[in-house]
C-alpha cells in the first residue's frame, strides 16, 4: 500500500510471454529516488563527478550518467536533468545510503546543496504515453514542466513523472485516469528490453561503466574534462581493457532473477560462473528475462543456467543497440 496515495492502489500486473503490454500504464516507482543539487556551482560540481557532459546538457534534455569511485567502479547509474533551480538525479533507492555521502564528499568546497528529495516518482508507459504527455504538458521538449509535475522522456514508450506527495493523486486523476495502475516490475521489463543499465546495492562498485553498456546509451562523454574514475573509463575505451558487457538473456524460471544473482555458463561439459544479474522479470507462464553482465567474447550460442535450477537452460537475445558503434 502506498502511504502517499489516498485514492489509488497499484497492483502487480500479471503478464505472460505472449501478452501485449498495456497501452497506457502508470507505475509507482517507489524503489527509485531522486537527489537534487541547487546552487551556482552545481553544474561544475557534477561535471567533475559524473561520466556525462553536464555542461552541454540543455534544459530540454535528460541524459543517463554514471557516478564512479576513484578506480572507475560504478556507485550508481542515474538519469540527470534540469530540475527547478538546479538538477535532478533519479537513481535506485537501494544505493542512496552509500552513494549519496560519496556524492556529497567534496561539496563543502562548492556552492551547491545536495539533498535526497521526497518527491514521488511515477512511470508512464505504453503506446499512448506520448500522446498523454502532449495533452497535458506544453511544448515538445524531452523535459517538460507544469504546475503539478515534471515529465522526463526515457524513450518512445516511457516517461518519468516527478511530483509531490500532496499532488500525486491529482496528477494521476488529471494525467491518466484510465491507465493501468501497477508496480515497478513492469518498468523493470521495459528496462530489460531496452537493455538500460542500472546499479543496485548488490552490484555497487562491481563494474566499470562499459561493462554495463553505459557508453551504448550515451551515458559517457569521452571529450569532457576530468571526473572521478575517468582514467579507468578512458583506458577501457582506448586500450581495450574491458572484457565484459551486459546482455539480455531468457529462459524458464519459477521465480524472478534478482540483482546480484550469479548466472553460470557452459564451458565444454562443465559449468562455471558466467555473469551477474543486473535486473530480472518473471512472466506469469514461468519464463523469465534478465539483464546480465557476461564476458564479451562468448559465442552467440552459449548456454547459461542458474545453479538452483540446473535443468533450465538460458540463452542470449539480441541487444537493441550496437555495442561497437562509435
Automatic annotation (TrEMBL):
InterPro entries xref list: GcvT/YgfZ_C, tRNA-modifying_YgfZ, YgfZ/GCV_T_CS, YgfZ/GcvT, YgfZ_barrel
Highest taxon, organism lineage: Bacteria
tRNA processing found in the keyword field: yes
Keyword tags: Cytoplasm, Folate-binding, tRNA processing
Secreted as UniProt keyword: no
Sites where the protein binds folate: 32, 187
Localization (cell): Cytoplasm
Domain tRNA-modifying protein YgfZ-like beta-barrel as annotated: residue spans: 242-307
Predominant cellular place of this UniProt entry's protein: cytoplasm
Family: Belongs to the tRNA-modifying YgfZ family.
Function in brief: Folate-binding protein involved in regulating the level of ATP-DnaA and in the modification of some tRNAs. It is probably a key factor in regulatory networks that act via tRNA modification, such as initiation of chromosomal replication.
Listed name of the protein: tRNA-modifying protein YgfZ
Organism: Photobacterium piscicola
Taxonomic placement: Bacteria, Pseudomonadati, Pseudomonadota, Gammaproteobacteria, Vibrionales
Amino acid at each position: 500500500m502506498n502511504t502517499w496515495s489516498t485514492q489509488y492502489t497499484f497492483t502487480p500486473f500479471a503478464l505472460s510471454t505472449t501478452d501485449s503490454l498495456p497501452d497506457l500504464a502508470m507505475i509507482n516507482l517507489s524503489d527509485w529516488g531522486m537527489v537534487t543539487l541547487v546552487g551556482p556551482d552545481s553544474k561544475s560540481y557534477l561535471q567533475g563527478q559524473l561520466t556525462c557532459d553536464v555542461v552541454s546538457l540543455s534544459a530540454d534534455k535528460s541524459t543517463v550518467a554514471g557516478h564512479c569511485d576513484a578506480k572507475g567502479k560504478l556507485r550508481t547509474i542515474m538519469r540527470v536533468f534540469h530540475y527547478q533551480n538546479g538538477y535532478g538525479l533519479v537513481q535506485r533507492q537501494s544505493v542512496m545510503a552509500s552513494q549519496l555521502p560519496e556524492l556529497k564528499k567534496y561539496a563543502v568546497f562548492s556552492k551547491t546543496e545536495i539533498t535526497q528529495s521526497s518527491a514521488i516518482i511515477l512511470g508512464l508507459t505504453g503506446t499512448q504515453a506520448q500522446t498523454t504527455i502532449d495533452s497535458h504538458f506544453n511544448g515538445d521538449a524531452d523535459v517538460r514542466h507544469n504546475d503539478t509535475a515534471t515529465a522526463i522522456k526515457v524513450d518512445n514508450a516511457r516517461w518519468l513523472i516527478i511530483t509531490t506527495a500532496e499532488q500525486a493523486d491529482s496528477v494521476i486523476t488529471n494525467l491518466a485516469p484510465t491507465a493501468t495502475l501497477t508496480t515497478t516490475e513492469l518498468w523493470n521489463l521495459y528496462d530489460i528490453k531496452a537493455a538500460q543499465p542500472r546499479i543496485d546495492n548488490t552490484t555497487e562498485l562491481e563494474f566499470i561503466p562499459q561493462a554495463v553498456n553505459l557508453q551504448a546509451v550515451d551515458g559517457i562523454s569521452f571529450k569532457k574534462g576530468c571526473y572521478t574514475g575517468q582514467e579507468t573509463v578512458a583506458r577501457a575505451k582506448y586500450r581495450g581493457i574491458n572484457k565484459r558487457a551486459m546482455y539480455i538473456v531468457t529462459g524458464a524460471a519459477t521465480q524472478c532473477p534478482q540483482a546480484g544473482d550469479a548466472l553460470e555458463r557452459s564451458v565444454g561439459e562443465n559449468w562455471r560462473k558466467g555473469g551477474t544479474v543486473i535486473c530480472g522479470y518473471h512472466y506469469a507462464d514461468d519464463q523469465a528475462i534478465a539483464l546480465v553482465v557476461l564476458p564479451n567474447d562468448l559465442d552467440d550460442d552459449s548456454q547459461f543456467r542458474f545453479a538452483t535450477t540446473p535443468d533450465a537452460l538460458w540463452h542470449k537475445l539480441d541487444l537493441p543497440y550496437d555495442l561497437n558503434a562509435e
